[in-house]
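Hi support team,

I submitted a single chain yesterday and got back a structure, but I'm not sure I'm reading the token output correctly. Could someone confirm the output below corresponds to the sequence I sent? I've pasted both exactly as they appear in my results page.

Thanks,
R.
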Amino acid sequence: MPTATAAVPPRPFGTVLSAMVTPFRPDGSLDLAAAGALAEHLVATGHDGLVVSGTTGESPTTSDEEKYALLRTVLDAVGERATVLAGVGTNDTRHTVELARAAEKAGAHGLLVVTPYYNKPPQAAVLAHFTTVADATGLPVMLYDIPARSGVPIETETLVRAAEHERIVAVKDAKSDLYSTSQVLARTDLAYYSGEDALNLPLLTLGGSGIVSVVSHVAGREYARMVAAVDAGDLRTARTVNAQLLPAVRGIMTRTQGAVAVKAALELTGVLSGRTVRQPLLPASSDEVEAIAADLALAGLVPGRPDA
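Hi R., thanks for writing in. Yes, this is the structure output for that exact sequence:
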């Protein structure tokens, strides 16, 4: 039996968001028609938000002009039905501000700003970076805490201080530190979104607002059902859905790099016609595609004989 329903957490950007891939043609050029169609598909299959030009969108290898065109395409396709965030974070504060202002001009509903990577700023500098970007536009900001990529975590005290800014309203949490997450949730009004598919359910049960997911490209309806179950206090159903999707998490998040794997998954499910990525990434190999297909079959997401 479901338990008593807890208060629904704040959801400034929606509930189930996809860290959307960027489709490319076989020659590596940007495929805006496919991007618009993919956005339509994602919204039709359980998503109420999309993040454009995040890491899974291969933002390090798209130009500023391509980012703008991609954002406009997605907004035109689904902007009246879903929250569209623009990934604008770089390791250069001035460039990040430029991208943030361009995203605002394009009509983005919010910004995703990752911790500056590679140059490893100390916490005071991390906070200054975030507040400078938040001051640059009138858009709400989701911070992206992913030390495995950035090299620097956003420490608890930094998050508490950042939460004092009126436009810093959320965190995409990929730090794998649920104790730190619990501390920030207890001390601030920040909305927390799981940025690590393996920890979607645990973070939701701590009071998380939703997910920014890679696996949801092929499991949007399932994740929407899991979030709804948590909202209803029905943890039995939530655990059942989570267990069903574990093979898909393995396939997309561990077989190879995430953007590479999820493009293979989208090709397997017929959503994309190819799996082109830009270097330094390479498309999934035939062996990797075979393993991903077996994992998706185990999760019930593609036809097949789940006997692996």
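A quick pointer for reading it: The chain has twelve helices and eight strands. Let us know if anything else looks off.

Best,
Support desk
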